[in-house]
Amino acid sequence: MRKQTGSEHTRGNTISSRDTPPNFMFKAVQSRTLHDLDCALPRPKLISITAPVGYGKTVLMSSLFRTSMESGKHSYWLALDDRDSSISHVLGLLEELFMGESERLEPTQALFIGATDDQGIQRLLEAIASIDEPFTLFIDNLNHCTDPQLGRLLDKLIFETPRTACFVFSSTTEPPVNLVRAKLEGLLRQVGYAELRFTSTEVKDLLGPDLASRIGATGIDAITRQTEGWPAAVRMAQILLSGSADPVAELQRFSASNEDLAHLLNRQVLSGFDDSVRAFLFDIAPLRRFTVDLCRYATGCEDAAKHLDFLLRKNVFIIPLDYNRTWYRLHLFFKQYLEEEAKNVRSLTHRQSTLLRAAEWCERNDHIEDAIEYALMADANEFAAQIIERTADRLVRDRGDSQRYSRWIEKLLRLGQSLGWETEYWYTWSLLLHRRYNEGRNYLNRLAASLEEMHPKEITKERLHDLHRRLDITKVCLNIFSDRLNEAHCDAKHWIQGIGPDDNPFDVTAAYCTESVFYSSAFLFSEAREAAQAAQISAYQTDSIYANGWVAALSALPSVLEGNFSQIQPELAEALSLLRGALGDEAAIVGTVSLLIAACSVEMGDYSDARKYLAYQLSASKKHGVVDVVSCGLDAAVKAWTGPEDDSIRITELRSIANAYSPRASSILSCFLTRRLIRLDRLDEAQAEASRIGLSVDRSMQAPDSAKETARNRDALFAAAIDFYIAFGNSRAAENLIPHA
Fold it and tell me: How does DSSP assign 275-325, residue by residue?
């Protein structure tokens, strides 16, 4: 497990200041709160620091981090910003922090893997549990994550990790943790703005001995009183008074009330700067982070290095982000003020031009996300679209940020901006990865139509062939996961006929897996096995444990549906052992294989074994899978269910899982439930359940249209109908169905 040293390092071309605390230019005040937290033994499981902007939360956090490191304690740092609004993004950062940068996947592979936030949380918990010494995780600016699921992640970190794992969170709003439980269990230490306010002693310490002696105890008390101990205002007073020839007289004019803050910044802080320095600050205000080179290029100011050095020496609310002091950011309240003031002193055209140049610099230096954001802020929508077109594959596949990618594309579409082919193709994949299947299908059809309209002079035959292959395998994946089996089969068969040396082995595996799923659902078991065997050959070329796991599951599915449970279960158990060893219990494919084993266990009468496999994996299957595999797990769960008092298997949860798939899954579940309720002699409930699938005691069922129903559905429906009619005394209706079953 990697130990955080606080040193600057890079991943690819992306700076990693987010996992290193800021390196402030000034000496942090050794406040009473810092002393109390440092001396607290044992350290609370959670220290929650909550206060408005400007109360020194990051300064306190950084000081705690460094004292922790100096004492030899294991520590990790993560700073969030406005990019991190989703739990998926935060999870990705935490996984990278604890487990290192993960390998990015081809989109076809990512779709078949089916990673979920629940699985990401489980991976994170396992990584934390594997750390064999006490550690503290610091997360700064937690308020940037507005995802409703954040509370679930934080609760698991606090309540489901070893006591040796401690956490320090800072936020402008109360974090969504179960604070009541944390208090009752003695795990929580809360720090609010009252504890962050400076006392006179701390104000004196921040001002420094020279300035403190010049204004005396009366002046120190006046600053403390006027600022009410607000650290940002005290820092502003320090900047103001340090530059004054008569600090006592200047102090008499000092006001730090919230309503006067902007005026004070303008009148008494910025007014002491040259016009060129003021202009420089207004120009860099929109930048999330910056270097000297970025500032020089964006502002066109050749004195950028000199201005930045001057501001750093003056301690003007600029925070270095790395130990080498290469990257910086503005303090938030100062940044907000400058951005508002810039609207009054800089024309819209000038501000947009600066942002556009910042976007150009960021793209050239591989800070792609910042480049796109600055282009959009500059209303340079065409340029933003061009950046995305050049980097779309990296953004979705390599950087895994498909949620933000989708937001960018949807914003550009709302603004009427035309998009490039690569941009739209990868937008389709981002829709599929988030199970927005109908939108994905519409986009695929649109892209296919645009290819057909291309003039031969616009594109080479080789390029056109490649684009068609990419679209076609995407459509195959879309149809199999949205349970449009006939279309998936037709498209996969056509795609397989055109396989060439340039096709991705994972795409080939996906096509053959699709064929196997279709044939199993149609009860064409010989063909299903043949397709699975072909998938296995290509899966070996992928060197992917996920691909081989899917092949193992789909190779076993025909035997499970045929009823060869004792024959296939040992093979599934061996595959599951390999998958668990390589991927852990949280992987979607582990759940897929577990459901098939549970189905075998139930049929062989081992209900306790089946429940063991169903306990976690059944719920996880809501996020990922194909109907014919998931229905095996639903069948096992229903057969193991003992009635309403059974709290380990809940029918509401089973319905929720089925509803996550096509209507076919809910229909099959109702068939299973009807038969189970009859066996439990709960006939009224059985009759109500049967009505969901069109069964009525006094009306014979019409044989379903074989062209519209899969063999799997017909089999489940006939079995349920025959049991239903026999249970309610309609033997004639049952007899009429038996020849068709």
Answer: HHHHHHHHHHTT-SSB-HHHHHHHH--TTHHHHHHHHHHTT-SEEE-STT-
